[in-house]
Every structure is written in structure tokens, then in C-alpha cells.
Amino acid sequence: MLPRTIRTTGQLLAALALTFGAASVSAGLFDDDEARKAILDLRARVDAVRTESDAKIAQEARRLSEDNAQLRKGMLDLQNQIETLRAELAKLRGQDEQLQRDVAELQRRQKDMAQGVDERLRQFEPSKVVVDGVEFVADPAERRDFEAALATFRRGAFPAAQTAFFDFLKRYPQSGYAPTALFWLGNAQYANRDYRDAIANFRALLARAPDHFRAPEALLSVANCQIELKDAKAARRTLEDLLKAHPKSEAAQAAKERLSHLK
What we know:
Serine Threonine Protein Phosphatase 5, Tetratricopeptide repeat; 2 strands
């Protein structure tokens, strides 16, 4: 749609054209000077209208150009704002991802710490153990002391092992390890040629747990101690008791061999 100024100018030119045409038709009514004057006046009016129209068009063009420049500036500012918001959004997303990683790492550390605390607590809590087929509950310190004494025996340090098992039984008299500790204490004493004390501890094992896994070996060890003490009669009686109580054990086979050599 044309601007209002342009429409008005067109209407004015049309009107002037009609007036000019009418003036031409009636030219005969005027003399040459009057016609020439009317034409010059008409031209002047047309030029004035055209000049005014051109000025208005130029003014409107400048205004449109300024509006367009302002619009471009506004769009550029808006684009800059959008880019700034995008950058801030990307930054926030990065911070959110980092925060999620930090939270995950914190949760992992917390879980590790909780597991570490549980493990440390379990080190001080009683736990079930199975020794020589017998299941019982033992404190961590109790288990540690028994295993240390047994390790000492296995490396051949029999005097130290004898002391370690003796101290263990004194410290934990009601321990589930006690029957086995008596067996190894007797073996340490046998290795140290303390035969009488060895016999006493093997018999203490048999009195405390006659059906213990180590009972057949304890009887055989008693007989061996008696043989070392040159008490063949007592040794024969002990070996016969072993065959009677545990005829199918490996210790019974060894007892038969011992009996065949006893006078």
C-alpha cells in the first residue's frame, strides 16, 4: 500500500491534469498571454507539489532508513543476548554435570568409608570359626593369638611355641580353641622332651573332649611319651585303649605297629 503522502500527490496531479485539460479546451476564451500565464502558473503549482512530494518522500525514506537501522541494531542486540544466554546455559550445564560428578564421587567415598568402618568394626567383633571340625565363636584377638602360636610351632620354634600355647590357655581357658591348643602344647612339650607335662596335656584334651578330632592322635602321643619314659606297660595299655576306642583311625594303624615292637 502506498504512503498517504504519495496518494495525495497523485490525486493533486490528476486534478491539475483535469484542470489543464479543461483550460486547453477553453483556450479560445483567453488570449495568448492569459493562456501562457495559466500554463506557467500550473507548472509552478505542479513543480511545488512535486517538490513538496519529493521532500516528503525523502523524509519518509530517511525515517524508514532510521527505523530499519534501529531495527537492525535491536536485532543485533537481541542476537548478542541470545548468544550470551546460550553461553551461560552451557556454563550452567557444565557446572551441573560437574556437580553430578562431585556428588557421585562423594557418594562413592562415603560408601568406601562406611565399608572401611564396617571392616574395622568386624575386626573387633566375634566371628564363627571352624577348627578340627568344631565350629565356635571366637574374638579376633583370640583367633590371632592362637594362629600366632600355631605358626610358631610350625616353623620349629618349639620352646617359644610351648610358651605361646601355655599363655593362650591361661588367657582363654574357655576358648573353643582350647582342645586343639592342648594338643599342640603337648606336641611342643614332646619336641622339648618334656614328656610328663606332655602326657598331662594330652590327657587333659581327652578328658575335655573325648570325641575330638585329635583324640586318636592324642592317645598315640601319650603312648609315645610313655615309650620315651621307658614305661612299656603303660604304653601297651594306652595303645590298646586307642585300638578299642578308635579302631578305624590312622592312629590305630600306627598303634598296631607300636604294639608289635613292644616287649
